[in-house]
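FYI - complex with (R)-mevalonate, inputs then prediction.
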Amino acid sequence: MKFYQLQPEQRRKLLQDEGLELEDIDDQVLKRLDELSENVIGQLRLPLGVVQNLIIDGQKYMVPMATEEPSVVAAANHGASIFVKNGGVSTVSHRDGIYGQIVLKVDEQFSLANLKDEFSNLVDLANQKFASLVGHGGGTRSISARQQGNLVYLKVLVDPAEAMGANKTNSILEFLSAKLGQLDHVEEKLFAILSNYPSQLTKGEVKIDPATIGGEKVAERIVLLSQIGYEDPYRAVTNNKGIMNGVDAVLIATGNDYRAIENATAVLANQDGQYRSLSKWTMKDDKLVGELTLPMAIGVVGGSIKARRDVQQSFAILGKDITSKVLGEIITSIGLANNLAALLAISTVGIQAGHMKLQARNVVAELKATKEEKKTVLNRMIQEKNYSESHAKDILEKLREEK
Ligand code: MEV
């Protein structure tokens, strides 16, 4: 039998026999995970944290975040607590659907105008075939096309309702491309697949009283940093990484496809041919105004969302009736919160002060010491502002000598 055909426990046994040490895993968990992916031999766990109080459009949310990076959840909480003092985040969402692409190879007699005449009929046929999606409030919305030489690029807009919609869109595209392939002067269908081009856009905006972040000077520094992020790709990519720290953590916690969102945001950041910050901070009427627009092709159903208990726990934290629109608004707001916290740290005490304290926790966690000893070591590392592993070991040694 091939490795992939084995039961997960057989795969584990094989690897263990070869001398690999594997972490223990519950049988039932292993079986469930094997249904989600391939060649499964174990699991990888991430800490799940929460942002306790995120106010969006007057509603309060608790937000789950899964990340291994110290300070990401702390930064999101810090940003969100500043938003609370300033009336929260206002959001606008445009959830028209996600794009699908079909590319056809055509001959010289092909007429684009004749093809376009078929579009409304094709949309109807797709909606009849995928009636359950229509029943959920979604459906195929439109088809458009352009021709370049002997290639025709079709763009299909599919509203996936509450799902991210990748599978459904691909099925619709394959259905449509089979019909298109039968048309006169179409030589062949080259491919039919969804496009991760930015769609389902959500904008978050905050208006901050400078007094709530340390005064006008701090606000001005944030505006300047934002301008630098607009002009300079070296800063822009780091600014955007800070945003994605928060965004990815919620995407992962909610079982969403963070690779799709990562790549779509990269397109947004590069819109005018230069890579720029996704966020913008300006002064308007004595307020620091922060804006962030993100592509939020995400879902609250579909994929493995219902099948994963860890993900269902995240939805329980968010509130069971959360829609994909609201989840997109939450994720965008978290991105803005992480961005503000990072800009604040950079423009005041510097990032390392907070980061290293949190990093010290990882160092201390690795020590072979009691809970009490670890607590004392951590406190001393913070007091002495020395966060290295060797210093942690020195402190522990001294501590034991003192006793
Ligand atoms: C670190 O993970 C993220 C930051 O570098 C983001 C930023 O510089 O804006 C702090």
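The mean pLDDT is 95. The pocket of (R)-mevalonate is lined by residues 238-239, 241-242, 245, 342, 346, 351 (CB under 6 Å).
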